[in-house]
Amino acid sequence: MIHNLFSGLSALGNGPAIAYLVGGSLLGMIFGVIPGLGGAVVLSIILAFIYHINNTGTLCLFLATQAGSYFSASITSILLNTPAHPEAFAVTFDGFPMAQRGEAGRALGISASSTMLGGLIGCGCLIGFIQVINYLPGLFHPPEYVALITIALLLVGTLGTDAVSKALVSAGIGLMLSTVGADPITGEYRYVFNAVGLYSGISLVALFVGLFAIPQMVLVFGTGTTIARQDMMGNEVASSTAVVLEKGFGKQVLQGVGDTFTHWLAVLRAGIIGVVTGIVPGIGGFAANFMSYGIAQQFSKKRDQFGTGIPEGIIAPEGSSLAKEAGGMVPLLGLGIPGGVGGALFLAALTIRGVQPGFGFTTKYPTLAYETVWIIALGGLVGTLAGLLAAPQLAKVTRVPGPFLVPLIMSISVVGTFAADVTFFSVLEVAVFAIVGFALRRLRYSLAVFGIGLILGPQLEQSIYQTHEIFPGVSFLARPLADVLFAVGLGIIGLKGFQFHKDAKKNNAPIEEADPVRRAEKLRAREQKLRPYPLLAMIANVLVLGVTIPFLIYTASEYSFNTGLMPMIAGSVAAAAAVWRFPTEISHYIHHLADKHEEERLLEGAGLDPKAPAPPPELQPVSVGARTIAVDGGEGSLHSVGDITDAVGPVPVRLSVRGGRSQINDKSWGRHGQYTRELAAFGWFASLLTLSYLFSFEVGLGTFCALYALFGTRYVMPSLVKRAIFGAVSAAVMVVAAYEILNLLHISLSPVFPL
User: Fold this and answer.
1) Distance (Å, whole) CA 430 – CA 416
2) pLDDT tens digits for 291-350?
3) What local confidence, expressed as pLDDT, does residue 744 receive?
4) What residues in the chain have per-residue pLDDT under 50?
5) 600-613 CB burial, b ≥16 within 10 A, e <16
6) Burial group, residue 546, by CB count within 10 angstroms (0-12, 13-18, 19+)
7) CA 133 to chain centroid
8) Which of 194, 568, 590, 688 has the CA that lies 20 to 30 A from 27?
9) Annotated domain spans of the chain
């Protein structure tokens, strides 16, 4: 162990590895502070470039980017009360109140040191688990693998959604996509339809870039506000005034570091909780941080002070964040099962590099697991220290209007996808998955399990085939461990279904409000929360049936039993879940019409025009902690008007915006023109693809950036001169970037690319 541990460190001692590690940490730090752009988005873009990087460089770039993003995501939580990512919600409870007292540096110091120390605790635990990783696959045979992968899909699929049926639809379609290309059992090609681009299957890079990067840019363009005023769904929320960092910031940071070491037991507990939750696939950083916060509160002698700005309230969630990533490496490296989106992207990177996690991993790659340990530790250290030094400047980044980011992210996504597969067909796949990903996100389907289904599909198919061959019929159910795991899977479905049903019943409770206008407002707010897009949901459900049923018919008629077994299972799961979901969507649409009719009746009774465009909502529920906050306009002062409770879960908070309004409030179609702008964003993306296809990437990207700056930023930059300058600079940057990227990868381009 000692030899491999130091060999893993020495593997990082060369120039390229150090550059990838430091560069990844800084990249994670910068993008981690931007709501919606850290995590999956930046990792999906990085995925496009790892074809030309060795294994050590891939690990450095990927893991360091992820590790470097954790602290910077908390900077906006502490200074702006605006979490950059879901994992940073819990730190708002005590981080922002401490900053309001004039101790922002202290809060940042606690956050940084807790994140770093928690990561080191997680890495120490991971070293111990590495010694038994090789024994994990020996506990599982094909039936157990089928059950284990099913459990992972269910656990991850039910995160971020509001129905088990949605998780099953997402998982089923992801598994269906995994069957495109050569059958790993028989070698027969499936669903390629003579398209050369499909012979090697669906591009992992195209899938993840399409699901995460492009839809996020569409949402950013649709809201048109600064990135600190957008939630995870791209909706605009009220934002508080940033806490001003006063003199003595450095001394406060040191004080915060001292607080962390004073509460070393709390750090140790948070780190262990993070490791344990990371080992279980599907729990996620959001749940892990809240679990750590709740346990810390229960064990603390100051439990009544949680939420007022005490060190333990910051240490608990921050100490578990990076430790969870270290714990997540255990099932990923030992069994090849990721615990979430980040793990799925890392597994995709390993797959692209030809590294196969699972049985005999540490035998085949004796130092790779230890390299993982060192990279997580060092990446967290570099990202945290750099983030702490740059915290004041990083906080200002969130005030940049989101549409300014669109040309950069879209252009890099397109050229990166092309560089990964050297075929424009993959770029077209990005466009398809961008539309699918946008719809899935809007309808609260699971993007994570959609991607994980594609990655784990081949392994699941092989395990199903082996189970069928070794254990004919249902004889595999005679294996006790398989029985237990399948029972756990059924239990997850039952528990999640009960939880979702209970939540839906609670949210649909009768509205008690005598005032007709207020009642109409509450009806509208409930509709936007529970049934935001009822017609789109019905159409999507019909489309799923329209795809899965012909898919099943084609499979049954064209392929042999062994070739069609996995597609039939995947298609049947998606089709059955869609059929199960269809009555619910009809019910939602009927309730939507009834509530809309009642809203119009109430407004007409109050002498108001129900057809008039609704103003921006005065009160918007946002899960940022157990506190009620009022904000005077977008840039006004923040005043606490509610009592702090001892709740530790995501509690809805109302942000009252008095006199404020969206930066963009036109009368175009849909919620103050947001839908119109989202369609326009897809139009811009289509123009980017067209220009790149016709005139090569260097010319296409430059032209796109120039045109976008002149016409796509007029809402946020009225000055034509400034738009022209922005266009010239962004075009020049992207032309040089595209040329250097493709030249570095030795890819030569003709004006028109073959598909």
Assistant:
1) 11
2) 788 788 878 888 778 888 889 999 988 888 888 888 888 888 888 888 777 788 888 888
3) 65
4) 228, 231-240, 616-669, 750-755
5) bebbeeeeeebeee
6) exposed
7) 27
8) 688
9) 2-464, 512-608, 676-744
